[in-house]
Amino acid sequence: MAKFAHILTIFLAVGSMWVLGSSGALSQSQDDYQRAMVIYGAKNYEAAIPLFTKAAQTGNVRATYYLALCHQYLKQDAKAIELFRHISKNFKGSAEAVLCDSYLQRIPQQPSAQASSQSSSPAAASGKAAAETALEALKQKADQISEAQWKALPEKARIPFQMKNGHMYVQAKVKGQYLNIIFDTGASMCAISLPDNPNLFSSAEIQKAPSVPVSRPHGLAYMKLVDGEVSVDRITRNCTIMLSGEHGVTLIGQNFFKEYTYEIDGFYIRMTKAPYVSPVVATASASTAGATGSAGTASAERLVKANNTAAGAGVVLTKGTQKPDAPAGAKKSNDKYSVPFVRQHNCMLVEMTVNGKPTPAMFDTGCAPDGLVMPMNFVQRLGIDRNSDGFFAERAEIGPIIRKYVPVSFANGLDCLLIGPKFFGDRPYTVDPVNNVIKFQY
User: 293's torsion region: left (phi>0), alpha (psi -120 to 50) or beta?
Assistant: First the structure.
């Protein structure tokens, strides 16, 4: 049986993520659940099982789901399947039930020793490797653009946006239909919520589209990959789009606008086309960056490795030991108004300090909460405090922005912090994908 732990994942960080509230007294069940999540994040699945079990006995469907994942990671497949079926039957309509239904459809109805043996056979391993290769090829296709396609893009665009529930919404046209859609720098690809837009893609298009596992804060979800025409203001292009079964996951991702520098103020996203970089040069730059080690890239990589070791992060953002992409020769700026970033699956990873401790953070315009979003297992390492109002960091800094007593929220499945537009307040900034920096106005 294929395990979630061994499937290629594509990171998708959007503001519709499930976030643990940071205020109010926690019940015993919630305490058990949060303690279990810290232990789960450290990959100590045996120790997490008793706490998840206690929380699940109170009817906590999310605790039941992670209890099933613990058994699955421990290769206790029969118990995991039993719990997946329990969730599917008793929590219909929940996000966890959707995930369980999707998983159960991909396994034999009656697991057997023969099936287990076949899943670990050389043939099965070869098939899995071929599937991973195919998925990686799909992702690379989504990342690449020819020079002719680049020339066809307009030089500039001025895109009005509205803030709603902490998200930056723009008007887009997808396959000829106008949609209000989230502008999300934390998403590697564009995505469409099928429940919110049931008539946008035909059943035939959906049926023939390949399925890929996508890392979500509440676990892995299978999404379909399709191609479709997307327009925002003057920019029109054919993009690879993920089709999600969740409400609220409709967004413009990096594969739509990564060829542009963009300035964000209180009213507009002002885009300017960046110089063309061929796929060959981009690939060579990513490879040499790992060998030569620019200051910004090396610093971020050290931080990611330190986080993965100290915090025991549960879901990795990259496959294997792949390094974040960065152009060769990038340098860490001494200008506090210019914050360098490295690309990781098209997402922007920056360095910030929390309570004086350097830590990586993903700059994510789809992140709705104010303050910092992190996994529970970062609390002790970053010295996060708690009072009657909830969890907070005494001090957080990035570039010219210094905030004190910063509220902290929690989300599962992260390797680093998330910071969204609310963290920056009203300060305008420009994202430069050529030099890989975020420039704040004085």
Answer: left
- Residue in 350, 152, 373, 157 with CA at minimum distance from that of residue 264: 157
H helical segments located in 42-185: 45-56, 61-73, 77-90, 95-104, 113-119, 122-143, 147-152
Query: Which residues are 392's β-sheet partners?
Result: 385, 407
Bridge-partner residues for 339, per DSSP? 438
Q: How far is CA 150 from CA 234, 257, 259, 260, 263, in A?
A: 14, 11, 8, 10, 20
> Which tokens in the block code for residue 67?
């209890």
Secondary structure letter of residue 202 according to DSSP: -
Q: What is the pLDDT of residues 204-237, one digit of tens each?
A: 999 898 887 776 655 567 788 898 899 999 999 8
What DSSP string describes 205-232?
HHHHSPEEEEEETTEEEEEEEEEEEEEE
- The whole-angstrom separation of Cα 292 and Cα 211 is 36
